[in-house]
Amino acid sequence: MRKLAALAAVFLLTLLVGCGNAANNNAAVNNGAAGNATAAPDAVTSASVVDNGEDFKKAISKDGTWIAATLKDLTFTEELVLDGQFIHKDKPARKIALYTQDADHNITSSFTLTAPKITIKSENAQIQGGTFVGDVYVEANGFKVVNATIQGNVYFSDAKYQATYSAADQGKVTGVTEVKK
User: Fold this and answer.
1) d(CA 96, CA 140)
2) Rounded-to-integer distance, Cα 171 and Cα 166, Å
3) Taking the CA atoms of the chain, what radius of gyration do you get in angstroms?
4) Model pLDDT for residues 12-31, shown as the tens digit of each residue
5) How many whole angstroms separate alpha carbon 172 and alpha carbon 144?
6) Are 130 and 110 in contact (CB under 8 A)?
7) CA distance 125 to 145
8) Residues forming a β-bridge with 138
């Protein structure tokens, strides 16, 4: 247990140091009735390192964090939704990090996230560093698969979302990548 806590602390510290000035980079965007006003910066929006399903679902919710990082394989029987808009380095961004890393940003462990389906509603979202088993439904611009594998299909609700999709640094999809309305 100590080893897991130490690993989580190193990972979180690395993320926070690598993210720069939290006051400028990690402000959450409020999508309420007042429009798109930027809320006051909150350290909670920087990263959420989790090791259980309930915390992971909170981290990917619209009230979650810009990055949800897992410390182990997670399996869900229900569908997941990555929702909400967060700002990182002055741009909308969300990340599902399926890995841990050392101080030099080398991946030390990769994990598998399994669910029948995940819907991506956050702009510039990415799945990085591990494997997602299930189908991905994209309803936002800028979806990326970075150094990760999607064991399933990626469906875009509109061709404009597919046009902004990318797979980088060994990102791959084992099934189809197509528009499906």
Assistant:
1) 15
2) 8
3) 16
4) 444 443 443 333 333 333 33
5) 10
6) yes
7) 9
8) 120, 156
Q: Which of 129, 124, 130, 127 is nearest to 154 (CA)?
A: 127
Taking the C-alpha atoms of residue 173 and residue 84, their distance in angstroms, rounded to an integer, is 24
CA–CA gap between residue 48 and residue 116 (Å, rounded): 23
Q: Count CB atoms within 10 A of the CB of residue 27.
A: 19
Q: Which tokens sit at 102?
A: 């050392």
How many residues can be counted in the chain?
A: 181
Q: What is the distance between the alpha carbons of residues 31 and 24, in angstroms, rounded to a whole number?
A: 19
How do residues 45-81 score in pLDDT, each as one tens digit?
557 999 999 999 999 999 999 999 999 999 999 999 9
pTM of the model: 0.77
pLDDT of 160 above 60? yes
What pLDDT is recorded for position 84? 95
Give percent above pLDDT 70 in the chain.
75
How many Cβ atoms sit within 10 Å of the Cβ of residue 26? 25
* H/E run at residue 13: helix 2-18
